[in-house]
Structure formats: structure tokens, C-alpha cells
Amino acid sequence: MEVEGILNSAAESYPMNGGDGPHSYTNNSAPQRRLIEASKELIIEAIEEKLEIDSSSCVNGSKAFGIADLGCSVGNNTFIAVHNIIEAVEKKKAKKNDESNSSSLLEFQVFFNDHSNNDFNSLFRSLPYNDSSRSYYAAAVAGSFYGRLFPNSTLHFVNCSFALHWMSKLPKQILDRNSSAWNGNRIHYTSSSNAKVHEAYADEYKNGMKCFLKARAQEIVGGGLMLIVVPAIPTNSNDMSQIPQAFSYGLLESSFSEMVNLGYISEEKVETFNVPHYFPTSKELEAIIKRNGNFSIEIMEILSRKMKFIKSSVEIVVGTMRAAMEELFRQHFGNEVLPHLFQSYTKKVEENLDILDLKFSQHEDLFLILKRKIN
């Protein structure tokens, strides 16, 4: 069995909150939606200039144009992302038709991917079914994107936005009391002064990305494109404690400590919990991609610099975190502690909103367009 197959079966899964309730991802993903909207012009530019739409290796007129949204979750964000991609491809195709006096059309096959316990029912209930608003065939593909999901050379455009900071699994060392990388009662490497913890996270992230890129290199046709958007460490700072997520995790640590003191959870429960998120630098990502060797980096930009910052609110900060991480907390600590946790965390966000707001105004999200090399 290949490495990525092993990793795929062992990948940990913490789906976003499903449904359309007050704590759902559907109703608490506005920041992600703003980034998708901000990326539209860059996607149009990339498809216009980089996609080899008429090469026999990409689109030969006899098969559908394959699009995959990896880590699609639930809600309208994935549909907006897919619409932007298809609109750009159709625009490029129409231009090519005009230049060649052709009238050929493309059919689109879109694959919505996430873990098997993602709320695909809600996703497909909200799928646009009107012919005028959905010009593609839709299918769900369940499984970890850290392993193979599709047959060889079947995808022409892959979108993976706001998902690759979720690691396939945590490094074992950070949970081992006898290891120099044991993270104790801290819940993330950004809140630890121990460099070994960060090193363990970084190594595990590289292993996961190695499998991710190897799988995509087999699935994407030569000349096809992959879009990656991932929160990152700012380029002008190596201080991981300065990113907004680090401050937010610090507030969570304080809430967990409070709950231990009140007897809601044991100290051991906190010591065996860590957030499976990693935030790379642009240099780290570039090195990982070059080491793979199957993709060229066509575009790498700081997407958040293209956006006008909107002041945060307690509701947005808490709602976004809860929608994305509630299942992670539930699986480790149990359902009964969640009301106490979010009550404590909300209070701490209220007390520190100005600091969080400043840090979020300085955050960076990397936008990358990778092109599959033609062998």
C-alpha cells in the first residue's frame, strides 16, 4: 500500500458544524466568504494566463472539465468558489472559440470533497438546482484529501481554500511526557516557548503536504491548475505568537485552565489535547512544493492585502471558532463541557476584543496557483 493510502485511512476528522442553525458553518463563515470573493480576480487572471485549456493533455473535447473543491464543508462558500472558477473557464473558452471560429462547449463535472462525516446532506440540499445558476454536474467524494481521491489525470482545476492548515494528524511527540516536545497543558505550538513543539508540528505538516501533493500530482492533468489559500505566518515576522490564531488559542488555554480549577475537566484531559492546525510561512510552502517537483508556482500573493479590513465583533470571533472547532472539542472533552467552555471563551474575547481586532487586521492569507507540469 502506498504512503498516501495509509495516511488517508489514519487521517483525523473534525467536520465543521453542519445544518443551518445558529452555530453552523453555513451561518458563521463570513470571513472565509470575503476571502473567496477577494480571490475572484486572481482566479480569472490565473485561468486566463496559465490554464492550458486547449492542449490535448488538458481538454480534448471528449471529456468533461473536472473541478474538485477539497475540504468543501457546508454552506454557500463552496458554491461561490466553484461558480468563480467555471465563469473564468467559460470566459477563456469563449475567447478561444472566437479566435478559432469554433462553437465547442465544455461540460463541467464538480466534485465536492470532505471527510465522510461532513454534512453532505445539508450541502446538497442547498446546491443550486436551477439550470441558470448551476451549469455543472455535481458529485460528493468522501475522504481525506491527504490521500488519493480521484483516478489518474481526471481533474483540470483543484480548489483547496482554508483547509490545508488542518493537519492530517498531530505529531505523537507532543503528547508524550517523556519527549522533549511534550506540550504539557498548552494546546498549540504558537503558545509554547519550547522550540521542539514547533519542530514536531512542522515535520508532521511537511509529511502531510508531501502526501497531499503526491496525490494531486497523479489526479491533475498536465497543464491543469490548483488553487491553495491558507492562513500563514506574516512574511515580515517569524514571531508565531503575533498571529491572531495564537492569541485566540491563548484565550482558549485560559478557559481550559479555568475549567480545570472549577472541576469541569481534568488536567490530564487538557494535557492530551492540542489543536491540529499549522500555519506555514511562504518560504516553507515554497520549499515543500519545489521538493515535490510536479508543480510550478505560478502565483503566490498575500490575499488579505487585497481586502479592506472590517472590524471584528465578539459574535464573529466566537461564532467562526465555534463553527470550525466545536466538533474537535466535543470529541476530546465531551458534549457536556461545551456550554461552560464557550461561555468562558466568549467572556475572554469580550475583554480582549481590541487586541484581537488589531491582530486580525495584520493577518496574512497566502494565495497560490500551482500548475501541474507536463511530463
TrEMBL record:
The keyword Transferase applies. GO terms for molecular function: metal ion binding; methyltransferase activity. Pfam families: Methyltransf_7. Gene3D superfamilies: Methyltransferase, alpha-helical capping domain, Vaccinia Virus protein VP39. It comes from the Eukaryota. Keywords: Magnesium, Metal-binding, Methyltransferase, Transferase. InterPro entries: MeTrfase_7, MeTrfase_capping, SAM-dependent_MTases_sf. GO terms for biological process: methylation. PANTHER family: S-ADENOSYL-L-METHIONINE:CARBOXYL METHYLTRANSFERASE FAMILY PROTEIN. This is Putative S-adenosylmethionine-dependent methyltransferase At5g38780. It comes from Senna tora. The lineage of its organism: Eukaryota, Viridiplantae, Streptophyta, Embryophyta, Tracheophyta.
